[in-house]
Amino acid sequence: MKRITTLLNALQEKLFSSTYQLQRIVILMAVALLLAVVSFGSYYFYDRYYTSQPTVSEVSIETAEKAVRDDPQSVDARIALAEAYMFNGRFEDALPQAKEIFVQEPDNQRAWLVIGISNANIGKPADAIEPLTKFVEARKDEEMPGLDRQLQAAAYYLGDSYLQLGKPQEAIDPLEKAVNWAKTDADSMYKLGMA
User: Is the C-alpha dihedral spanning 172, 174, 175, 178 positive or negative?
Assistant: First the structure.
């Protein structure tokens, strides 16, 4: 123990024996700190503001918009655009596209889903109920509803729309279906508990 103390004292005397060496250590530490700050700042700027490529969602929307421009009468192109808008949270943009499809094909289930979910997310639950009810009714008897994410989402938003309208009794059935189809869906379980 005495040897370690003696060794530390000798090291301290050598390192800090003069103010010149102490100044040199302080300057080196300041340079290291400055380099760390500059490198962090550069990385932050690059990460936050440098966008060399568009995101996947932007590409999917641009591709779908181009397809609609190329063939405005194509139901498939228009529904793909409506779904791209919906999946990216642009519900106000998805609605007109889905309504255009609904005019051409009133029985288009994908249009029902987009109209229902978009209305539910923009605060129009009364307008969401009919298309979501049609969608759930059309698909509820399929062989494996637990694998159909669209059906589960439709049931959830249907129940949620009823809850927003102050009709918890009507919300129970679609929310129970959503929970039965997706046993780990915490949002559906929560809404069912509220109902």
Answer: positive
